[in-house]
Specification:
Elements: H1 7-32, E1 39-40, E2 44-46, E3 49-50, E4 56-59, E5 62-63, E6 67-77, E7 84-94, E8 102-105, H2 106-110, E9 121-131, H3 134-137, E10 142-147, E11 151-154
Parallel strand pairs: 3-11
Antiparallel strand pairs: 1-5, 2-4, 4-8, 6-7, 6-9, 9-10, 9-11
Length: 158
């Protein structure tokens, strides 16, 4: 049997000097990839409403790639007093290729019935979308956040 003894050291050198650095570069690139590669929030507008009414949320968004994700909504008074007026979250499957604007009542969007009973005042929402297990779970979850306009809840007249 004739085996060349230099093949094994050559393969080891190839692994250590080529494959391993390439794997490190690819993992670092995946780790640094922002959530906006999957989801771009665009603009979020919440319409003014009267007490007892459910404000309407209009969102322009781009879902570039399909992903399992979670969103969280926190509604704050303006100026902030340290207390969340209402909050909600949900986990769902986002389908890539959706570019249409989306409208929904605030209670449905935030998944919190308290949002329909906001007292008179000015409010804004902070919304975050999280891409769960990107790149088959080899890197941490990715999050992108946005803040809405300031909207008013007015007292009912008469």
């Amino acid at each position: 049997m004739m085996f060349s003894t230099c093949k094994t050291p050559t393969l080891r050198a190839l692994f250590w000097w080529l494959f391993l650095p390439l794997a490190i570069v690819l993992y670092t690139a995946a780790w640094l990839t922002p959530a906006r590669v999957w989801y771009e929030p665009g603009s979020i507008h919440i319409a003014d409403a009267y007490e007892g009414e459910d404000p309407v949320v209009s969102i322009n968004r781009t879902i570039r790639r399909s992903f399992d994700g979670r969103y969280t909504v926190s509604l704050w008074r303006d100026p902030p007093d340290g207390h969340v007026a209402c909050a909600g979250s949900d986990t769902l499957r986002y389908r890539g290729g959706l570019y249409e604007p989306h409208e929904a009542p605030l209670t449905q969007w935030a998944d919190d019935e308290w949002c329909a009973r906001l007292p008179t005042g000015k409010y804004y929402a902070e919304v975050c979308w999280t891409v769960l297990r990107p790149f088959f779970g080899i890197v941490p979850d990715k999050t992108v956040c946005a803040t809405t306009n300031i909207f008013s809840v007015r007292p009912r007249e008469g």
